[in-house]
Amino acid sequence: MTQKNYNDMSAVKALQKAQYLAVSPFIFQAVVSMKRFGILAHFGKMNCCESVSRGELAEIAGISDYAVSVLMDLAVVADLVICNDDGSYTPTKVCHYLANDRMTNVNLDFSADLCYEGLKYLPESLQNGSPKGLKVFTSSYNTIYPFISSLPPKSREAWFNFDHYYSDNVFGLILPVLFRERKFTHINDIGGNTGRFAIEAANFDKDVRVTIIDLPQQCELAENNVLEHGLSERIDTYPVNILDESTVLPTDGDLWWMSQFLDCFSHDQIVDVLTMVYNAMDDGAMLAVCEIFGDRQTNDIARLVIEANSLYFTALANGVSRFYHSDEFLKMVTDIGFKVYKEKDGIGLAHTLLLLTK
Question: Do strands 286-292 and 255-259 pair parallel, antiparallel, or not at all (unpaired)?
Fold first, then answer.
C-alpha cells in the first residue's frame, strides 16, 4: 500500500513497519544465508503440507544446529517459514517467491552481490554527487561502467543478470512495433552493451544493419558475441565515450535506439547526449527510447523495486543518475526539439517506449 494520508495506517502497523525497516539488514542477510546454504532451495521444493526438522536443515546446509536455529527463529517472525507444534518448519508463500521467482532472485542477487557493501556509502554519495560506494570494487574509475567487465565474477554475473532480465525480454516485443512503423535499414544502437539488442534486431530483419555505439570495453564484449552469432557482416561497433565533448557520432542511420541507457546519466548529461543525437540524425530519422519510469508503473511492487534500485546509480554507478519519472524526461526531449511521435507503456515488465522525431 502506498500511503496517501497520515491516518491511512494505524499506529501499531506504522510502528511494526518502522521496526521492520530498522532491522531489515539482518533479515536480508538471513535470506542471503539461507540461499547460500541451500535452505531456501529446499523450502522452495516443499509444498504447504510438508515440513522439515531443524536437524534435517542442519544436515542439508552443512552447518550447526545453532546456526540453523538463529536463522529459523528470524525466518519465523519475518514470515518466511511457519514453525509447527512439533518444532518443524513449513515454507510460506513469501519463502516460495524468494526461492522460485526469477524476478525476486535477480533483485536479491543484485542487492547482495553488487550493491550491499557499496550502499553503506549512500550518505556520502548523496552529499558529494559521486558514487562513493564504488570504492568497494575499485578506486581507479569515477563510474562503474568502464569497470563492469572487471567486476568480481559473482558481482559481474549479478549486474548482467539484472540488466538482461529487465531489458532483454522487451526486445522481442518492441521490434515488431518498430518495424511496423517502417522498414528500417540501419540502426544506431547507442549503449549497445553486450550486443543483445543488435543481435536480436539482425535476426528479426535479415536486411537491417546495426552499429553498436558504446565504450571501448563494452564494444569488445559485443564484438565477441556478434562473432559467435555469425553476424559480423551486418553488425559493427563504434567505440566512443559519448560524454566526451570531442565525440563525433555517425550521421547515417534511419533509426537511433537507446534502451535503459539514459538512466545512466544526470539530467544535464541526458540533455547533452540527446542534443548530440538530435544534431547527428537525418531529418527523416527516428529516435526510439526504451526506459523504465517509476511514475508509469501500475502497481506498488514495481514502483518499490524501481525507486529502490535508483539508489544503485547514486551509490555505485555514477552518483548523479536514476530511473527517471516521465514528466521530467518528456520535458527534456521536447525542450531539445524532439516531437513525441508515439509512446507506449506497459511493455514487458516495466518499460515505456518513446518514438521521437525531429
Answer: parallel
Neighbouring-strand partners of residue 172? none
What 3-state class would DSSP assign to 165? Answer: helix
Helices (H), 110-195: 122-128, 153-181
Q: What is the grid cell recorded at 11?
A: 499506529
- Asked if residue 234 lies in contact with residue 227, where contact means CB atoms within 8 angstroms, the answer is no
Please tell me the pTM assigned to this model.
0.88
Question: Does an H or E element contain 336, and which?
Answer: helix 326-336
CA atoms within 13 A on the CB side of 318: 16
What tens digit of pLDDT does each residue of 107-138 get?
999 999 999 999 999 999 999 999 999 999 99
Q: How confident is the model at residue 355 (pLDDT cuts 50, 70, 90)?
A: very high
CA 240 to CA 211: how far, in whole Å? 12
Start-to-end C-alpha separation, the chain: 41
Residue 212 φ then ψ, to 5°: -90, 120
